[in-house]
Amino acid sequence: MPGCFKKTLFASASLISFVSFILIVVAMGTPKWMTGKILCKTGADLVNATDPELVKFIGEIYYGLFRGGKIRQCGLGGRRSKFTIFPHMVKKLNTGLHVMIIMFLCVAIFFSLVSFGFCILNAIKVPYRAIKGPAGVCLWNFLAGGFIVLAVTSFMAAVKLHHLTERIANFRENVFQFVILEEQFEDCFWLCVASATAHAVNLLLIAISGIHFPKIKTKTEEANVTAEDIMY
Fold first, then answer.
1. How far apart are CA 131 and CA 13, in angstroms?
2. Which of 6, 72, 194, 211 satisfies CB 3.0 to 4.6 Å to 2 for a cystine?
């Protein structure tokens, strides 16, 4: 049986792994990875709009991995619309990269659950196999955190290098052209960052669990030293 200190550490690690799993699931299901302001360039050019008038042509956009929405402002008032990434829009995006982001997060979910199970196992008993012990728990946390970092990095690349927001804003826009004025990462993106951080904390906890702290002898134990102990 593991000691009380190790039990506490592994119980904490199991809770953190489960929280990480919840964070990834919530992030994947919520359409708030990115928000931005979009300018209807076609409408603004038609009326030769000046700076004060440009407000009438600035709309908003938000999206996640599977769906999103936008408000088109082309001089005739705001028009709300919603869209889904699959199955049609993804063909106009960098399909391989977008699918890869989702796959990375799915794999991270799997390893988060594996880490959760192995942390509980180590809190209950000391496994005989190394892969089921602290070394295994470190491996699963490293893999889970690593795949989350890959997903986050890939999404940033899609936004900054492949102009993801602009592609989504102009999807099926045959008349108007939209340009991105500003964009920012939102809560769901940062949930994934928090999930990766959680696995880093788990690695720290497992490392601490391997430290052997010296036992402090009480006065009672010191008083029970026999003559035989002194001879040796």
1. 17
2. 6
Amino acid in the structure at residue 101: I
68 membership: H or E segment, kind and range: strand 67-73
Which residues share a beta bridge with 62? 35, 69
Q: Are 161 and 37 in contact (CB under 8 A)?
A: no
CA atoms in the 13 A half-sphere facing the CB of 110: 8
Count of CB atoms situated within 10 Å of the CB of 55? 9
Are 202 and 54 spatial neighbours (Cβ–Cβ below 8 Å)?
A: no
Q: At residue 232, does pLDDT exceed 90?
A: no
- Rounded Cα–Cα distance for residues 121 and 118 (Å): 5
- Count of CB atoms situated within 10 Å of the CB of 4: 8
Query: Can you read off the two tokens belonging to residue 213?
Result: 């702290």
The residues, ordered by sequence, that sit 6+ positions from 70 with a Cβ below 8 Å of its Cβ are 38, 59, 60, 61, 62, 80, 81, 83, 169
pLDDT higher than 50, residue 230? no
Side chain identity, residue 83: F
Cβ–Cβ < 8 Å for 141, 202? yes
**What pTM did the predictor assign?**
0.84
Per the DSSP assignment, residues forming a β-bridge with 68 are 63, 83
**Segment 30-80, tens digit of pLDDT:** 999 999 999 998 888 888 877 777 888 899 999 999 999 999 888 777 889
Three-state DSSP at 36 gives strand
What is the predicted pLDDT for the residue at 215?
55
